[in-house]
Write a structure and sequence with these properties.
This protein has 429 residues and is mainly alpha-helical. It has 21 helices and 3 strands. Among the domains are: 180 residues; 93 residues. Strand 1 and strand 2 form a beta hairpin. Helix 1 runs parallel beside helix 3, helix 8 runs antiparallel to helix 9 and helix 18 packs antiparallel against helix 19. The longest helix is centred in the C-terminal third of the chain and has 31 residues. The chain is elongated, with a radius of gyration of 36 Å. The protein starts with a helix and ends with a helix.
C-alpha cells in the first residue's frame, strides 16, 4: 500500500511538471507570433492561467512571471498607436511595477545561462518607454501624483541609465506627500552622483516657428545644415543638487527626524558650501534649540527671516541691545517686515514698567507731584517714540489685534482723541 501511494505521488508530480512544461511551450510559441490576433491573446491567457499555479522550479517561475508581465503590453499591441487614455485602462501602477520586477528578474536569470529573452526585453523597454512615460504624465495631470511617481520609478528600474526619470519620480512623490518614497529616490540620486546638468541643444523649426530640442549638438547642427531649422542656440540646464539636498533635509524635518536632518544638512554643505537654502535650513534646525550664540554662527545675515529670528532669540535671552540691532537690520533688509517694527516697539516699551512702578509709589506731596510730572513727561516721550513703530506695524498687519490694542493704548495715553476714535471706528467695521 505504501509503495502504491508513493508511486501515485511521483506520478502526479510528473504529470504536473509535464503539464506545466506544455503550457510554457504554448506561451513561448504564442509569444513568438509577430502580429497577435485576439484569438492568440485568448489562448495566451488560457495557457498562462494553467501554467501559473503549476510553476514550481525557479526557472519556470521566472518565465511564467515574464509572460504574465508582458500580457498588458501584448494587449496594447492589438491597438495601433496606443494613446495615453487606452494605456491608462490597460495598465495600472501595480502592473507596471510587476513588469519592471519581472523583466529584471528574467534578465538576471539569463545572465548565467541561455539568453532566451534578453534582447527582446531590451527592445521592449526601448519601444514601450515612451508609452509608459506618457502614462506617468497622464497620471500626474490627473492629480494622481503618487501613482505617477511609482510608475516613473518602475520605468527607471527598467533602465537605470536615465537618472532624470528618477528625479521626476522623486518630484511627483514630494507633490503626493509620499515622503518615504521621495527620500528613497533622492538618496538613490545622490548615490548615483546625479546632478542633472546638461547642455540643451535647440533650433527654430521653419515649419512651426517653435524651438525644437535635439539629443546632441551634431543632430541640431545637421538640422540647421539641411535647412529644416535655423537660429541654433545652447542653454545650460542648472544642477539639481541644491534641490535634492534641500528636499532631503525638508523631508527629514517634516518627519521630525532632527538628528538625521542635521546630518543631511552637513552632507549637503560639504558638497554645496555656499548654498543659501541649505544654510537657511541649517539655521532653522539650530533655531529650534533657542540658543542665540549658536544660531548666530549659522544665521544668514542677508536673509531677513534669519536676522529677525536672531533678534527674537536675543530678546528671549534679555540681550535687548542685540535684539534691537537685529530688528533694525531686518527692516533694512525688508522694509515691510511687520513684526520687526512691533518687536522694536516692544523693546522700547520695556522702559515703561520702571516708570509706572515709580509713579505708583509716589505720594501727594509737592515734591512727589513734581517727580510724578517728570516721570509722566518721560512716558509721553517714550510713547511718542514707540507710536510710529506701532503705526507702521499696524499698516503692514492691520488684522493683528495685539498691535491694534497697543496702538490704541498709546493714542489714549497721549490724548490723541481723533486718532483713537478713527482706529476704534475702523476696528468696529
Amino acid at each position: 500500500m505504501i509503495r502504491k501511494l508513493v508511486l501515485a505521488s511521483i506520478l502526479a508530480t510528473t504529470l504536473s511538471v509535464s503539464a506545466q512544461k506544455d503550457e510554457l511551450k504554448t506561451l513561448k510559441k504564442i509569444y513568438a507570433i509577430e502580429q497577435m490576433s485576439a484569438k492568440d491573446i485568448s489562448e495566451y491567457k488560457a495557457a498562462l492561467a494553467k501554467a501559473e499555479p503549476l510553476a514550481s522550479e525557479a526557472s519556470d517561475k521566472v518565465y511564467v512571471n515574464f509572460y504574465k508581465a508582458m500580457l498588458p503590453l501584448l494587449e496594447m499591441g492589438l491597438k495601433e498607436n496606443a494613446n495615453p487614455q487606452f494605456i491608462m485602462t490597460a495598465l495600472s501602477p501595480e502592473k507596471v511595477d510587476f513588469l519592471a520586477r519581472s523583466l529584471n528578474a528574467t534578465l538576471d536569470f539569463e545572465k548565467t545561462g541561455k539568453k532566451v529573452y534578453t534582447e527582446d526585453i531590451k527592445e521592449t523597454i526601448e519601444s514601450f518607454r515612451p508609452n509608459l512615460l506618457n502614462y506617468a504624465v497622464a497620471m500626474g495631470n490627473a492629480g494622481k501624483n503618487k501613482e505617477a511617481a511609482k510608475i516613473l520609478y518602475s520605468i527607471y528600474e527598467l533602465d537605470k541609465s536615465n537618472n532624470d526619470i528618477l528625479f521626476y519620480a522623486a518630484s511627483y512623490a514630494v507633490n503626493a506627500q509620499d515622503y518615504d518614497s521621495a527620500l528613497q529616490y533622492y538618496r538613490e540620486l545622490n548615490a548615483a552622483k546625479y546632478t542633472g546638468e546638461r547642455t540643451i541643444y535647440s533650433a527654430k523649426s521653419k515649419l512651426s516657428d517653435n524651438y525644437d530640442q535635439f539629443n546632441n549638438k551634431v543632430e541640431r547642427d545637421n538640422a540647421v545644415k539641411i535647412g529644416t531649422h535655423s537660429l541654433p542656440k545652447e542653454e545650460q540646464e542648472p544642477s539639481k543638487l541644491p534641490e535634492i539636498h534641500a528636499n532631503i533635509v525638508r523631508i527629514l524635518i517634516q518627519q521630525k527626524k532632527k538628528d538625521e536632518a542635521k546630518k543631511a544638512v552637513a552632507e549637503g554643505l560639504a558638497v554645496l558650501p555656499n548654498d543659501p537654502t541649505l544654510k537657511s535650513l541649517e539655521s532653522e534646525l539650530v533655531l529650534e534649540s533657542a540658543n542665540y550664540d549658536e544660531y548666530k554662527k549659522v544665521a544668514n545675515m542677508s536673509d531677513a527671516n534669519a536676522v529677525y529670528n536672531l533678534g527674537v532669540l536675543a530678546y528671549q535671552e534679555k540681550k535687548l541691545a542685540e535684539a534691537e540691532k537685529h530688528f533694525q537690520e531686518t527692516i533694512g533688509l525688508d522694509a515691510k517686515y511687520a513684526n520687526a517694527y512691533v518687536n522694536l516697539a516692544a523693546i522700547k516699551l520695556t522702559a515703561d514698567k520702571p516708570l509706572t512702578d515709580q509713579m505708583n509709589k509716589l505720594g501727594t506731596s509737592a515734591a512727589d507731584n513734581k517727580k510724578y510730572e517728570n516721570l509722566k513727561a518721560q512716558r509721553i516721550a517714550l510713547f511718542k517714540t514707540v507710536m510710529p513703530l506701532l503705526e507702521k506695524g499696524h499698516e503692514l498687519a492691520p488684522d493683528d489685534a495685539n498691535v491694534t490694542s497697543q496702538l490704541l493704548s498709546v493714542y489714549n495715553y497721549l490724548e490723541m482723541k481723533d486718532k483713537y476714535q478713527a482706529l476704534k471706528a475702523k476696528q468696529a467695521k
